[in-house]
């Protein structure tokens, strides 16, 4: 086992003495691809808050298994409590589709997207969507947080938390939502390697995701929650 106080150059020297050479001293990382089938996204719920006179639309989701893309092997030795981003920002949001009724005075008042798993949490309340009348979307960075690190001569064993293992999105509309009809869906856009979500939009037909690359990404959607005059019907 390496002395924790050794520099990377010293580690490389001792490895070379053993006849072992680093392929890339900076970082060697393997990624296992995931797919949209690896997450479960639940139908949104809709309730009315009489104290604020606002309609609150909430939706949750989670990964079905530990199939997200994480560093499998690396010459980079992390420290306990440090984090590593998985690609660029992901996106989570609620889209309102097949809408009817009046949008006069309709306003999205607040909301947030939240990734959480124990002490690994990231929340964004900065709206990223282009049209608030058809929902709200947020960009949130997903990452792993190292909770245990064992450094050995030829490899590094780590235990970690993935912050996007659980996810929640909430958007709040003013009382004019009572004049609205349509379907509410949760959407989630995931990236890894060097891909990022670059933009999020919503329209009457659903969510639109902008990507930095055509590779290493996918998006997923929940079943629809139908609402009439602001109230859920299914």
Helix and strand layout, with pairings?
Elements: H1 8-17, E1 39-41, E2 45-49, E3 54-63, E4 83-85, E5 90-101, E6 108-117, E7 120-124, E8 135-140, E9 143-151, E10 156-162, E11 166-173, E12 180-191, E13 197-203, E14 206-211, E15 217-221, E16 225-228, E17 231-232
Antiparallel strand pairs: 1-3, 2-3, 3-11, 4-9, 5-8, 5-12, 6-7, 6-11, 9-10, 12-15, 12-16, 13-14, 16-17
What does this structure look like?
There is one protein chain. With 234 residues, the chain is mostly beta strands. The protein has one domain (26-232). Helices cover 4% and strands 49% of the residues. It has one helix spanning 8-17, and strands at 39-41, 45-49, 54-63, 83-85, 90-101, 108-117, 120-124, 135-140, 143-151, 156-162, 166-173, 180-191, 197-203, 206-211, 217-221, 225-228, 231-232. Strands 1, 2, 3, 6, 7 and 11 form a six-stranded antiparallel β-sheet that branches. Strand 16 (225-228) and strand 17 (231-232) form a beta hairpin.
Summarize this structure briefly.
By secondary structure, the protein is mainly beta. It is built from one helix and 17 strands. Strands 1, 2, 3, 6, 7 and 11 form a six-stranded antiparallel beta sheet that branches. Strands 5, 8, 12, 15, 16 and 17 form a six-stranded antiparallel beta sheet that branches. A three-stranded antiparallel beta sheet has the order 4-9-10, with no helix packed on it.
Summed over residues and divided by their number, the pLDDT gives a mean of: 86
Shape: elongated
Integer count of domains: 1
Largest beta sheet, briefly?
6 strands, antiparallel
Strand content: over 45%
Outline the low-pLDDT stretches: 8-16, 18-31
Count of beta strands? 17
| Global Rg | 22 Å
Element order: H for helix, E for strand: HEEEEEEEEEEEEEEEEE
Number of helices: 1
* Structure classification: mainly beta
Helicity range of the residues? Answer: under 10%
Tell me the distance between the termini.
Answer: 58 Å
């Amino acid at each position: 086992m390496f002395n924790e106080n050794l520099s990377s150059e010293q580690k490389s020297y001792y490895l070379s003495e053993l006849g072992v050479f680093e392929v890339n001293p900076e970082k060697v990382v393997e990624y296992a691809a995931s797919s949209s089938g690896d997450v479960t996204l639940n139908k949104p719920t809709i309730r009315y808050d009489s104290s604020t006179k606002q309609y609150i639309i909430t939706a949750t989701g989670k990964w079905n298994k530990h199939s997200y893309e994480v560093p499998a092997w690396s010459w980079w030795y992390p420290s306990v409590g440090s984090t590593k981003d998985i690609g660029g920002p992901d996106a989570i949001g609620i889209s309102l589709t097949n809408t009817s009724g009046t949008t006069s005075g309709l306003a999205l008042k607040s909301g947030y997207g939240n990734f959480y798993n124990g002490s690994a949490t990231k929340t964004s309340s900065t709206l990223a969507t282009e049209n608030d009348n058809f929902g709200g979307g947020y960009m949130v960075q997903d990452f792993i947080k190292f909770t245990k690190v064992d450094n050995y001569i030829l490899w590094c064993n780590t235990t970690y938390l993935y912050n996007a293992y659980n996810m929640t999105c909430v958007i709040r509309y003013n009382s004019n939502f009572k004049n609205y009809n349509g379907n509410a869906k949760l959407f989630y856009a995931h990236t890894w390697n060097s891909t990022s979500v670059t933009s999020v939009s919503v329209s009457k037909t659903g969510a639109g995701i902008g990507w930095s690359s055509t590779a290493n990404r996918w998006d997923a959607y929940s079943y629809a929650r139908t609402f009439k005059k602001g109230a859920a019907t299914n």
